[in-house]
Write a structure and sequence with these properties.
Length: 333
């Protein structure tokens, strides 16, 4: 596969600037665009350097309005945003990355040139890191680029996942998350569709009194996970359970705890880093070298015999920072 080419050869060229596909329906389906003050539009358009991406002020205004309406300007459901709250919400977005992503989604070639220059190398390296293989990493990155360009079925408009990027988090983080999800989807699909040859063949038994190395490593990892999660504060375990097990959105959790969605996003990201560091520390304390501990964390989670929900729901005396969150967490969990 030629990873040096800037456009997949088997895809149509992006829509021309004269006939853009704005992708606004992906942001706020069925909602008419909100009208923003011209002075605010001009400020945000300049801050986003949207002109360099091929977006007019009117187009960027429509994109911002659609995002604001979809998430109620970062406020809880039912609260009507004032002009000051709307302006503060728009200024909090990653405006330059939002303009670039939306311009790419609408097929602006100047935007794609910027995107490839800025992100292609780092995304390929991220894909190699995720897959653990240079070959698989390049294939994963190339398949993502093809998807981001937007495939078009006969008689259908071009669709790009970039149209769903709202600018509330960083674009590199969004792209890496998308890479991880695509790799997981591929892994699950190939694991489920893999041939079953030899499934019924006998598995050699380990020597008497000696556990298989793989089983011993998995048991050690399971113990480290249990110890790490059990020692987390109650609110941290609630966040992990709500986001990773119950699949609640950042907005749903934010409304539950009555904080901004961005606050939840930062806390979960920081919490994931803390959990990983604690896991490594516990594995090293259990006798593994740092390299062996890093390798152990790469194990397939499905091989670990552990009840994550039971661990995350174990009661502790520490209270949540907000009283209503405690009652809501009890109801959810």
């Amino acid at each position: 596969m030629d990873t040096a080419s800037s456009k997949p050869a088997d895809l149509d060229l992006p829509a021309t600037a004269g006939q853009p596909s704005t992708g606004l329906e992906a942001l706020a389906p069925g909602l008419p665009p909100d009208l923003l003050p011209p002075s605010l539009i001009a400020e945000l358009w300049r801050a986003a350097e949207a002109e360099s991406c091929g977006l007019s002020r009117e187009e960027f205004s429509a994109i911002l309005a659609a995002i604001g309406q979809k998430v109620n300007y970062g406020l809880s459901a039912g609260i009507v945003a004032g002009s000051g709250q709307k302006a503060a919400f728009f200024r909090s977005l990653h405006l330059a990355e939002l303009a670039l992503a939306q311009a790419c989604a609408s097929g602006r070639e100047e935007a794609w040139a910027i995107f490839l220059t800025r992100y292609r190398g780092s995304l390929t390296q991220a894909a190699i890191s995720i897959t653990g293989s240079a070959t698989l990493g390049h294939e994963l990155a190339d398949s993502l680029y093809a998807e981001l360009y937007g495939l078009r079925q006969s008689g259908e408009a071009r669709r790009s996942p970039l149209a769903s990027y709202s600018g509330r988090g960083s674009l590199p983080g969004w792209l890496r998350t998308t890479l991880v999800q695509r790799f997981r989807d591929h892994h699950r699909r190939t694991w489920r569709e893999g041939p079953l040859d030899g499934v019924e063949s006998a598995v050699p038994e380990p020597d008497a009194g000696q556990a298989a190395p793989a089983s011993a490593e998995l048991a050690r990892l399971a113990a480290a996970v249990a110890r790490t999660l059990r020692n987390l504060p109650a609110e941290d375990r609630f966040l992990l359970s709500a986001y990773f097990l119950d699949r609640q959105t950042l907005l749903q959790i934010a409304q539950l705890l009555r904080v901004h969605e961005a606050t939840i996003s930062r806390r979960i990201k920081r919490l994931a880093e803390v959990v990983r560091k604690e896991l490594l520390r516990n594995l090293v304390a259990d006798g593994l070298s740092k390299a062996a501990a890093e390798e152990a964390l790469g194990a397939d989670p499905r091989d670990i015999e552990i009840n994550l929900r039971a661990l995350l729901q174990t009661s502790q005396s520490s209270a949540f920072s907000h009283q209503t969150a405690q009652g809501a967490a009890t109801e959810i969990l």
